[in-house]
């Protein structure tokens, strides 16, 4: 009889990493910006004020429900920085410039991590599971995390393929809409897709993410 722990069939990356709450929260200030910009007669100030009000409301609600202050404040800081950029340039579409740059940097970082055999998906899951870097000593897990990380690279590339043309065309409302469509729904698809790739990449006898087979 094998003493290796059975693979948990019910566990998924979504259950380990979450992400739904933060992804939904991230879409609300851009929606506020788009609405404020439109109602204010295509005014950057109108969009900025609306986005900041929504951002503060979301942060206040999260803090009142005892969510981690650091993640809440980071989200609010991102809204403030995006608003500052738009006010500085006077171009409403620049409110979304930070998101564009962030996705480009993320695509590059995830690609480099795969090439140097430190796939970020493994790093993040390893931290969540308290494994530190033990997963890297399991060749099957290392290979699976590398393949799964490519799904995340494609997520960022897809956003860039949509955001860049809209940004260059100065399509504010389309950018706000794309930000919604390509946030939580895309994150959910990415979590499901990368989990499917990992499960397909691991051999049937492998005990699962929580149990690296150390070599």
UniProtKB/TrEMBL annotation:
Entry-linked Pfam families: DUF3159
Transmembrane residue ranges: 44-64, 71-87, 107-129, 150-169, 181-198
Keywords assigned: Membrane, Transmembrane, Transmembrane helix
Superkingdom, natural source: Bacteria
Protein name: DUF3159 domain-containing protein
Organism, scientific name: Micromonospora polyrhachis
């Amino acid at each position: 009889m094998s003493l290796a722990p059975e693979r948990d069939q019910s566990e998924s990356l979504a259950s380990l990493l979450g992400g739904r709450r933060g992804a939904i929260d991230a879409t609300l200030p851009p929606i506020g910006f788009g609405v404020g910009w439109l109602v204010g007669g295509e005014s950057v100030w109108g969009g900025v004020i609306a986005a900041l009000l929504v951002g503060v409301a979301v942060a206040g609600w999260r803090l009142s429900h005892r969510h981690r202050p650091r993640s809440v404040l980071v989200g609010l800081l991102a809204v403030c920085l995006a608003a500052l950029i738009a006010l500085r340039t006077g171009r409403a579409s620049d409110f979304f410039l930070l998101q564009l740059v962030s996705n480009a940097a993320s695509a590059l970082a995830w690609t480099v991590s795969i090439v140097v055999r430190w796939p970020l998906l493994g790093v993040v899951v390893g931290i969540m599971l308290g494994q530190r870097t033990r997963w890297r000593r399991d060749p099957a897990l290392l290979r699976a995390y590398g393949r799964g990380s490519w799904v995340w690279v494609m997520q960022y590339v897809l956003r860039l393929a949509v955001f860049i043309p809209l940004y260059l065309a100065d399509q504010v409302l389309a950018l706000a809409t794309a930000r919604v469509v390509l946030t939580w729904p895309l994150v959910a698809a990415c979590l499901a897709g990368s989990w499917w790739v990992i499960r397909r990449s691991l051999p049937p006898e492998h005990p699962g993410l929580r149990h690296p087979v150390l070599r």
